[in-house]
Amino acid sequence: MADMEVDFRQYELRCELRGHDDDVRGICVCDSAGITTSSRDRTVRFWTPDPSAKHNYTSSKILLGHTSFVGPLTWISPNDEFPEGGIVSGGMDTLVLVWNLSTGEVVQTLRGHQLQVTGVVLDNEDIISSSVDCTLKRWRKGQAVESWEAHKSPVQAVIKLPSGELVSGSSDTTIKLWRGKTCSHTFVGHTDTVRSLAVMHGLGFLSASHDGSIRLWELTGEVLMEMVGHTSIVYSVDSHSSGLIISGSEDRSAKIWKDGICVQSIEHPGCVWDAKFLENGDIVTACSDGVVRLWTSNQDRVADKTELESYMSQLSQYKISRKRVGGLKLEELPGLDALQTPGTTDGQTKVVREGDSGVAYSWNLREHTWDKIGEVVDGPDDAVKSPILDGVQYDFVFDVDIGDGEPIRKLPYNRSDNPYDTADKWLLKENLPLSYRQQIVEFILQNAGQKSNPFDPSFRDPYTGASSYVPGGTSNISGGPAKPNFKHIPKKGMLAFDGAQFDGIVKKITEFNSALLSDEDKKHICLSELEVLRLGAIIKVLKDTSHYHTSKFADVDIALLLKLLHSWPPTMIFPVIDILRMTVLHPDGAKVLQKHFKDDNGTVICP
């Protein structure tokens, strides 16, 4: 839904709160006392109003106690036990911690969940928590007094309604209404994980989902509004007494909604994990760049010109770092100095970075100069088709199920990446044994459609001294076989090759062709300028789904693919195989291919 002009005053940056060393994951508005934030850096920070400070808030307490990243938070209003209030936090470490803000110390450690804690809420003096272990638990005076399996899949959020009932949202795509341990209603409608819930006073409650939508529900189960506008996972939703709704998403925006219409989209330099309203209507956002930001529609509280310009500069630099030109990141392109190197053949093309654009040049052999062709841009749908994780676009974002009730992990990968480096970084990030390295590499190569990939020859496994460690092999230290407990690696279920990253394929073929061109012994198998144009025409036919059943292939198209398949080195043919796979799926492509791959019995032989 496009942003529309309605009776609404636009929000602008009020201030930035810096202190966290990693993604800010959660926000809790603590009445007039301040703001609490949680982070992947394992800390909880309490920010208090400071009228004398330029940004009006200062970090007054850093709460240390979690051993992994911290997510959900809830506020305990001041009482006899907590004179300055308290905080309840849930973490990846499976713990629920209760903090006394007077001392900044943990006063209760609630143990019992088997997996990550995803939600915490107060129910009178009790604490209710939700977890990836599929349960809801009720805690009273530091002890678990009730526990029940709320869903068959991870529970991602829990809230308490003004009427006293609890509402839970799950990865099973449903929402459940609880009276005690009894489910009185199941809300069905979302098509993916329900990630966040919020009360909408006087109307019902809100839900945000990985399907990119936000819904407003009546307790009867009726959907009063569906808000669609985000282009990726919606991680959070909140409402204000004015009727405004705020949502935060992996598409790097916080969107403000009024009467079901998106009235403003606030760009961020990263994924927006959480967004909350302050009582005065200002907004707080938690971003993957580690910064907490306040936004206001009151001109008296808007940041000064210098701060606004600084933020716009941050945003611009972030966009440039993520911009892709012809399938490559802009920052990966060579500068203008690359044009000092002469071309090798007439018509050879080179793309260089000029400012924040990529510009193509063609080598003029007669004049011995690089002639400017024009600016290179990605197609309008490229950003939508490329998966996004934590605000970053990748060629692939794989779902990895490691079994044993563990949550699904996200593994990002670009075709140009070294899969061994990717596996190493991912295993460290997810705190998984490095002995799984080879399995992860094989998983990446299989699901990326790559036959093989050279690895860094300088790597030596610290246990075996070999270039790569094979799980199940003998370790020089343990003297016995490693026994990884993956249940669904390399892939749970069937991989359907019903789509392709065409820009990545073109990029890889161009890269290989350039490498062959620079090798005197292999120049004869390079693509000519005419063949490059022919290959582009093939890609266009495969990519243009609007004419999928009427587009035609010629024998010369197939002959070109077969030439590459049979003449190029085995390590370079995987992008060609990707094109052939998509050609097989094309009605006319399959018919033309059939002429070339039949045995004596008429059976089609796949390459």
Task: Give a summary of the structure in a few sentences.
Its main location: cytoplasm. This protein is of the alpha+beta class and 607 residues long.
Strand order of the largest sheet: 1-28-27-26
What is the CATH superfamily classification of the largest domain?
Answer: YVTN repeat-like/Quinoprotein amine dehydrogenase
Task: Look at the structure and give the CATH class of the largest domain.
Answer: Mainly Beta
The dominant shape is: elongated
**CATH architectural group of the largest domain:** 7 Propeller
Enumerate how many helices there are, as a single number: 9
The name of the CATH topology of the largest domain is Methylamine Dehydrogenase, Chain H
* End-to-end C-alpha gap: 45 Å
Largest sheet: 4 strands, antiparallel
Gyration radius from CA atoms, angstroms: 28 Å
- What's the rounded overall pLDDT mean? 81
**Quaternary status of these chains?**
single chain
| Count of separate structural domains | 4
Question: What structural class do you assign from the helix and strand content?
Answer: alpha+beta
Report the portion of residues in β strands. Answer: 25-35%
Unreliable sequence segments:
1-6, 379-384, 453-489, 599-607
What is the helix content? Answer: 10-25%
Query: What is the β-strand count?
Result: 37
